[in-house]
Write a structure and sequence with these properties.
The chain folds into two domains: about 160 residues, Glycogen Phosphorylase B (Rossmann fold, 3-Layer(aba) Sandwich); about 150 residues, Glycogen Phosphorylase B (Rossmann fold). The protein contains twelve helices and 13 strands. A seven-stranded parallel β-sheet has the order 3-2-1-4-5-6-7. Strand 11, helix 8 and strand 12 form a beta-alpha-beta unit. It starts with a strand and ends with a helix.
């Protein structure tokens, strides 16, 4: 099957393109948001092909994976076909709703020409999608090559754009934890963090734009993984840390409460409880390794790549058969 999919979320797309299909990823001269092309910091298989908008006019496309509202128009223009009618489509919703959350209408609500695929059951519950068919395909993560050592009595965090996203990513809570230990933050646009929070570099160290494998290798040396996101779907970095064998200390928000079992870490809405958990794991490496082993088992069981790709294959087959 030839699948058109934009490179929007690097970690999710990395898992998705490890399937058995051929994946057409748009590329534009500026490699902007609508044409990033192949990933440069993730490993993608050779079955991923870059394709220009011009080449899509005559490309053999069996299904379109949409991830942003404007892609419906863009795909129809580039393919010169009515997406959802002439070629089947699904819309992957990666995010929690914004605004007045209980009443937030999904941009693809009340449609009969596509299926909305949520990445968590929490998202399916909270989005108002009207009469549009919905389903859930939970995340899958390729097992990281790095394995947890926990040799550094420091705290690991992964967050992209934490200054702009601030309360969404729990950035404002970080000083509560730098009081306890050094915190190392990995991700995009993290270099401003120490200055913005007024925390010395030794207590809050940013690691900007490391390739995925290098980031995992560094992150897994930290004693524990701290997840402070208030309102995001389900961070793939959290699942990757668990799959690498890291113990987790996390806010009990959105899907994290279902993803992290009690034996894998400490999950709470109380910051003081999370601070106590950080103190405990920093002081008790054996407990950290025990929780980390449970986290790895949980992640590989529920969020394994084989299960993810199998679920997607079933859905893709359903969608293409229904359109014939």
């Amino acid at each position: 099957m030839n699948i058109l999919v934009w490179h929007v979320h690097g970690a999710w797309t990395t898992a998705f393109v490890h399937g058995r299909h051929r994946y057409l990823v748009p590329v534009t001269p500026d490699r902007g948001p609508d044409g990033l092309g192949r990933a440069r910091t993730y490993h993608w298989p050779d079955t991923v092909a870059e394709v220009t908008p011009e080449a899509l006019r005559t490309a053999d496309v069996d299904l379109v994976v949409l991830q942003r509202p404007h892609e419906l128009r863009l795909a129809s223009t580039w393919l010169r076909r009515r997406v959802g009618h002439d070629v089947p489509a699904v819309y992957v919703e990666h995010n929690t709703p914004k605004g007045h959350v209980p009443a937030t209408r999904h941009p693809m609500a009340d449609r009969d020409d596509l299926t909305i695929v949520h990445v968590t059951h929490f998202n399916q519950l909270f989005w108002d999608t009207g009469a549009t068919r919905t389903t859930v395909v939970e995340h899958g993560v390729p097992p990281p090559a790095a394995r947890y050592t926990g040799e550094l009595a420091r705290v690991g965090v992964a967050a992209n754009d934490p200054v702009r996203r601030w309360r969404v990513t729990g950035t404002d809570l970080l000083p509560r934890f730098t009081e306890l230990a050094g915190v190392d933050v990995f991700g995009m646009r993290v270099t401003e963090l120490p200055a913005r929070l007024g925390v010395p570099l030794a207590r809050l160290t940013p690691y900007e734009d490391l390739p995925q494998a290098a980031m995992h290798a560094e992150l897994t040396r930290r004693r524990l993984y701290l997840h402070l996101c208030r309102w995001t779907s389900l961070g793939l970095s959290l699942l990757e840390a668990m799959a690498a064998g890291m113990p987790v200390v996390a806010l009990a928000t959105t899907e994290a409460v279902a993803a992290v079992p009690p034996e894998a870490g400490v999950v709470s809405t109380r910051v003081d409880v999370l601070r106590d958990a950080v103190r405990w794991l920093l002081a008790d490496p054996d407990a950290a390794h025990r929780l980390g082993a449970a986290a790895r088992r949980a992640a590989l069981t529920r969020y394994g790549l084989d299960r993810f790709l199998s679920d997607w294959d079933r859905l893709l087959e359903e969608e293409t058969c229904a359109s014939r």
